[in-house]
């Protein structure tokens, strides 16, 4: 229920599975406004070989901040390599502010690699999640890349469970 | 004098009834399309859309069907 003038969030999670190439999904939102129903749309270009993208390569292309044991793992670096023939400026399009922040290089020269970093917030350190962030580059296509970020506290939880057993 | 007060009251009442009968919920989605760009296989990515109630009656989200 949304009072007049209020807003709410709708999170759409897209599981890329074994999809290939351009995928578009159009979830339907049914309300008491009546027909026609409204839609949101997500568009993704699912790549089977993330090690051959253009204009940049991102390594690793999935970030896994899974924590083994008690030692806190709250950050991870990744590398962005400019494989185009022009200097590229980066723009952060979206990231979940409550879970992590992303330090990006402002620009990357032709053929150069730059380091970027994901750093978890204090709250995120205690939680499991599977989210993502999206970066845009200023090439002619305004290319975007979405990087999945995953965190589980598997080992720590298993240890806690086993120590709780009589 | 009494009659004109009665008529004025009647008009106000009719306007209130007509207004509530015409009140309608309205959903506005300021940004309804999102481009992820390149994404790897076997991963989960997500985006948050904002839904706004811009009508003049309470909006109820009844169902969200995957696309």
Short descriptors:
heterodimer; A: 166 residues; mainly beta; Immunoglobulin-like; five-stranded mixed beta sheet; four-stranded antiparallel beta sheet; B: 67 residues; alpha+beta; two-stranded antiparallel ribbon; 1 helix; 4 strands
Write the layout of secondary structure elements.
The complex is a heterodimer of chains A (166) and B (67).
Chain A: E1 7-15, E2 21-25, E3 28-31, E4 38-39, E5 41-47, E6 56-59, E7 63-64, E8 75-82, E9 88-94, E10 100-103, E11 107-108, E12 113-120, H1 122-125, E13 129-137, E14 144-151, H2 154-164
Chain B: H1 2-22, E1 27-28, E2 33-40, E3 44-53, E4 61-65
Antiparallel strand pairs in B: 1-3
Folded structure, characterized:
Chain A is mainly β and 166 residues long. Chain A has 2 helices and 14 strands, in the order E-E-E-E-E-E-E-E-E-E-E-E-H-E-E-H. The N and C termini of chain A lie far apart (47 Å). Chain B is α+β, with helices and mostly antiparallel strands and 67 residues long. Chain B has a domain at 24-67. Chain B contains 1 helix and 4 strands; from the N terminus they run αββββ. The longest helix of chain B is centred in the first third of the chain and has 21 residues, at 2-22. Chain B is rod-shaped and about 80 Å long. The mean pLDDT of chain B is 86. At the A-B interface, strand 1, strand 3, strand 4, strand 5 and strand 13 of A face strand 2, strand 3 and strand 4 of B.
